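Hello Y.,

Per our agreement to keep a running log of every chain we model this quarter, I'm adding this entry. I've kept the format consistent with earlier entries: sequence first, then predicted structure.
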Amino acid sequence: MLNLWLRQVSFSYSDGQVLHDIDLSVGAGEMVGLLGPNGSGKTTLLKLASGILKPGHGEVRLDGADLRLISRKSVARSVAVMPQQFHMPFAFNVGEMVMLGRTPFIRTLAGETDVDREVVSTALEMVGISELKERRFDELSGGERQKVILAMTLAQQPGLLLLDEPTLHLDITHQVEILERVRSLNREQGITVIAAMHDLNLASLYFDRLVLLKEGRIVADGTPIEVITEDILYKVFAAPVKVEPHPVTGDPHVIIIPEGSSWSSPDRPLS
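Predicted structure for the entry above:
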């Protein structure tokens, strides 16, 4: 388990500033969902948390240590990143793909060890894809590929798992499978999880804490009940929605209101 701390973090690309004075503390073992419109800074925040990007201002600390002072190899031994998409130009099978997660631990001349092979086997079992070990990665379905990428990140044995839209382009079945696996890892192994999400309802169901971004700033941070409200969502997304308790879990559930409806803002109840 690892904790993460961003203090007064700002970041700019060549075409403008993306994040502004971000203060965010994620405790060890938390499961946090990042929400916000496209371009709000979710992916950039994840890249800063992983050390891929360096803040233009402020600092990012992992278990109290400044990320800028930690080697990339050392960071990779404790922080794993699951990207939106993963393109492999070579015809690797699933076992070989998951073994890539052991790269930070494999000594160049010694090669993989029995320990590495055992870790890979365990990662495959944890994600439930042991039977795919000999299959070619490029022949798998989208949902199966996402599971392989998740297994590859788990082979790093991370204390902090960063996921960028882990359910992107997946059908409902695979969306639920991926998030159930991630939540189990969080609950059973205490892995700290931070995930950028687009689906508000999935985020409400699976994450204990939500952080909502707009134009590079945090506008809400709290439980789903505190963050997923009609007023907040209207201010951030400029789209009218109705929020009601989920009929089974009681979590906030977002209902989209079509254009032309008489209900057009949080101040106007649905007629």
